[in-house]
């Protein structure tokens, strides 16, 4: 399928999602799987996600959200800039996404309280503790602040590894969302693999918990030889 055909299919699918949300419908898992199909992205999954608790994943692309949502629909914590993305920002805002202003301690504290409340209600949340995207060759240091929510809510933490078959998926640096989208639809046989690793108890210091999760994801990423 050509890049143009994929773009058209994606645009039509996004329109369907917008119409569905406008009518009060939400089919996060099905919509996410269909979006990946429209983009020509194959999904492979290893492991079983938590029914409720905190998922923490490495971050490579905006595709990460849809890959995880395809099998483990979650409430995501995203940077406030995502809200301004054309169409996708609107969709994220209406599908249980928490937006947080970066670099603000007050915003982090407020977000932690929102997360604790949601986790105590049995919801599944997902965060990207690196705080930014990378090429996926290594895992950047984790920010530990939001791990406190799992400790306070007494819920488990599950590390998640995201790996792509090509760096065409990477959304890094000064790349715009449009440029990234074009890179994705032009890629051949692009595959995203989502690995749900064993859950860990949220106990002790949040920095230690963040370190344990980082170690698990880094070790698995190196073993898989992801690029």
The portion of residues forming beta strands comes to 15-25%
Rg value: 17 Å
**Secondary-structure element string:** HHEEHEHEHEHEHEH
Q: Tally the helices.
A: 8
Question: What do these coordinates show?
Answer:
Helices cover 44% and strands 17% of the residues. It has a single domain (42-175, 190-224), classed as Glycerol-3-phosphate (1)-acyltransferase (3-Layer(aba) Sandwich), CATH 3.40.1130. Helix 2 crosses helix 3 (63-71). It is α/β, with parallel strands linked by helices and 227 residues long. Helix 4 links the parallel strand 3 and strand 4. The protein has helices at residues 3-22, 28-39, 63-71, 88-93, 105-120, 147-153, 177-186, 206-224; strands at 41-46, 53-57, 75-79, 97-100, 124-127, 157-164, 190-196. The protein has a seven-stranded mixed β-sheet with strand order 1-7-6-2-5-3-4, with helices on both faces.
Keywords for this structure?
Glycerol-3-phosphate (1)-acyltransferase; 227 residues; 8 helices; 44% helix
Structure described in brief:
This protein has one domain: 3-Layer(aba) Sandwich (Glycerol-3-phosphate (1)-acyltransferase). 44% of the residues lie in helices and 17% in strands. The chain contains 8 helices and 7 strands, in the order H-H-E-E-H-E-H-E-H-E-H-E-H-E-H.
Note the topology.
Elements: H1 3-22, H2 28-39, E1 41-46, E2 53-57, H3 63-71, E3 75-79, H4 88-93, E4 97-100, H5 105-120, E5 124-127, H6 147-153, E6 157-164, H7 177-186, E7 190-196, H8 206-224
Parallel strand pairs: 1-7, 2-5, 2-6, 3-4, 3-5
Antiparallel strand pairs: 6-7
């Amino acid at each position: 399928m050509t890049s143009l055909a994929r773009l058209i299919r994606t645009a039509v699918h996004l329109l369907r999602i917008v119409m569905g949300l406008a009518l009060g419908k939400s089919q996060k898992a099905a919509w996410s799987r269909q979006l990946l199909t429209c983009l020509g992205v194959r999904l492979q999954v290893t492991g079983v996600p938590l029914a409720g608790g905190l998922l923490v994943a490495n971050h490579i692309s905006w595709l990460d959200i849809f890959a995880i949502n395809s099998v483990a629909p979650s409430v995501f914590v995203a940077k406030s800039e995502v809200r301004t993305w054309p169409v996708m920002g609107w969709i994220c805002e209406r599908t249980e996404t928490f937006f947080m202003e970066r670099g603000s301690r007050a915003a982090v504290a407020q977000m932690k309280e929102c997360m604790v409340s949601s986790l105590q209600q049995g919801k599944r949340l997902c965060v990207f503790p690196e705080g930014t995207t990378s090429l996926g060759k290594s895992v950047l240091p984790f920010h530990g602040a939001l791990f406190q929510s799992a400790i306070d809510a007494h819920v488990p933490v599950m590390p998640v590894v995201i790996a792509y078959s090509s760096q065409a998926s990477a959304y890094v640096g000064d790349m715009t969302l449009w440029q990234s989208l074009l890179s994705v639809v032009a890629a051949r046989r692009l595959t995203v693999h989502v690995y749900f690793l064993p859950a860990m108890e949220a106990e002790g210091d949040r920095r230690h918990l963040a370190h344990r999760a980082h170690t698990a994801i880094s070790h698995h990423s190196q073993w898989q030889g992801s690029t």
